[in-house]
Amino acid sequence: MTHQNPNPDPIPPPSPTPNPNPTPKPAWNSEARPARLEERLADGVVRCHLSPRNCRIRPGQHGFCRVRANRDGRLVTLNYGRSVHATEETIETEAVFHYAPGARILSMGNIGCMLNCDYCHNWKTSQARYAEDKDVHHYTPQEVVDIAVRHGIGVISWTYNDPVVWHEFVVETAALAKAAGIVNLYKSAFFITGEAIEELLPVIDIFSVSIKSLDPAYYRRITKGWLEPVLEGTERVFRAGKHVEVSTLMVTDLSDDEKTARDMAAFVGERLSPDVPTHFVRFHPDYKMTHTIRTPVDRLEKARATALGMGLRHVYLGNVYDTASTDTRCGACGLLQVTRYGLNADLVGVDAAGRCTGCGSHAGITLLPDARPRERIRDLPPGQDLSVAGFDWHGDVRALHYQLRNTSAAPARAYARRLGDAAADRSWEVIDLAPHESFRSIAAKSTPGETGVRVAVDRACESTLHQVFDRAHFPTVEATAGTHNGDVSPLPLFARDPRRSPRP
């Protein structure tokens, strides 16, 4: 089989003065660009070989993802460079614990998805029909790399909805990033073809794969995809020598049982390696699954114990706090090597060569040279006219995105600080903003005693706060817009179209 147009467009040349302020554009999906992995059929029909669906698309129609379409008999992508706001987070946000613990990452998330999971907490942008122009920004590949370089960030994470349907933009931008010495992380449900994987392997360094379940019937019913391509793809990137970590969302009363843990442990142990870090992740009600509760933590702990008992060496819990089940210990001597609280990590027992400081065994953790740390100051600059906003942690909402926009033609500074615990509240972190730059960053609760965060901005800057409900959630609503919903679900709340038949 011959696929037409394997490399449709060269990477746009770098702009001499890249625009640091991505502005929302009207009709986010109005610009079509040639797509990869196209097969041209009779009568102007095209087949897309990006996901295992291999969508057969007639002229004027869309594929399942609604961001790949047939225009005049050619396969096009409608979301090239279309993204939620670029956001600085930590690598733990992506269920990656054994590569550069605590590293700052630049998270990039697209519009659209090749699945439609009933519990998706990014449904406002993963399901393209619900995406709003106000939430969509436009980036060029060079602009993404420039943001990471300007802020001293050493890892770009392709994340949130799912990077599979952003294939052209990911491949081209990741190549630029790699040439600039930046690591690429691919956080995905990995419902993807082998042909597409082959295009990712040269540019992606880390694969964090979300395996929703090991039950084929569950996959069909809950995700609208199917299982085996996910497992085959995960094994493929592992055999290619890439850093791989896997995770499973333990949905309350649906997939939070011992069988799920055993099936996951068997897959990792038999088809990958007992050394592959494995994460059991706490679920929260969202999208079409709101009439339930968060996963009881004791069920997650039992799942972890089961997987460890079956021979896996590194099993962690996700979306939980106040448990040692997120820490890393030496497999040889038991020394505590990495402590974690939420989305924060500290190396305490690993030397610069990646070896245990207790017994000298290799820790199985890849370390990166320190990226440029942000400047910190003890007190805010005197005499500067600053506006201060704050957010207090509540219930299970223990992370916050703060979005900053410099409205002036001169560089500006903003400041962020933790409150309530002397161990965390040490100083103000400085965020330097280029003229007219818009930048979003995360603050996640880092100690049990921390009570919240404060953000201070110059009057030339604007700021908004957005509560983050569990990791890899991209909030589209400001924290002040409505109630906290009793920690059940982040805003906005999904309302089923009454004209549609109820889901069986």
Helix content: 10-25%
The helix-and-strand class reads: alpha/beta
- Report how far the terminal alpha carbons are from each other: 38 Å
Gross morphology is globular
- Biggest sheet strand order reads 16-15-14-13-12-11-9-8-25-22-27
Oligomer: single chain
| Main sheet properties | 11 strands, mixed
Helix count from the secondary structure assignment:
8
Q: How confident overall, as mean pLDDT?
A: 89
User: Any low-confidence stretches, pLDDT <50, length ≥5?
Assistant: 1-18, 482-486, 498-504
Radius of gyration: 22 Å
Count every beta strand, where a strand is a DSSP E run of 2 or more residues: 27
Our estimate of the beta-strand percent is 25-35%
Provide a quick synopsis of the model.
By secondary structure, the protein is α/β, with parallel strands linked by helices.
Keywords:
disordered C terminus; alpha/beta; 8 helices; 5-stranded antiparallel sheet; 11-stranded mixed sheet; 26% strand; disordered N terminus; 504 residues; 27 strands
Explain the overall architecture.
With 504 residues, this protein is an alpha/beta fold. The strands form six sheets. An eleven-stranded mixed β-sheet has the order 16-15-14-13-12-11-9-8-25-22-27. The chain has a five-stranded antiparallel β-sheet with strand order 20-24-23-26-21, with no helix packed on it. It has a three-stranded antiparallel β-sheet with strand order 1-6-5, with no helix packed on it. The protein has eight helices and 27 strands. It has helices at residues 123-126, 141-150, 167-179, 194-200, 216-223, 228-239, 258-271, 297-309, and strands spanning 33-34, 38-40, 46-48, 56-57, 68-71, 74-77, 82-83, 87-90, 104-109, 137-138, 155-159, 183-188, 206-210, 243-250, 278-282, 315-318, 328-329, 336-341, 344-347, 376-377, 386-392, 399-406, 412-419, 428-433, 438-444, 452-458, 461-468. The radius of gyration is 22 Å and the shape is globular. The longest helix is centred in the middle third of the chain and has 14 residues, at 258-271. Helix 2 crosses helix 3 and helix 7 runs parallel beside helix 8.
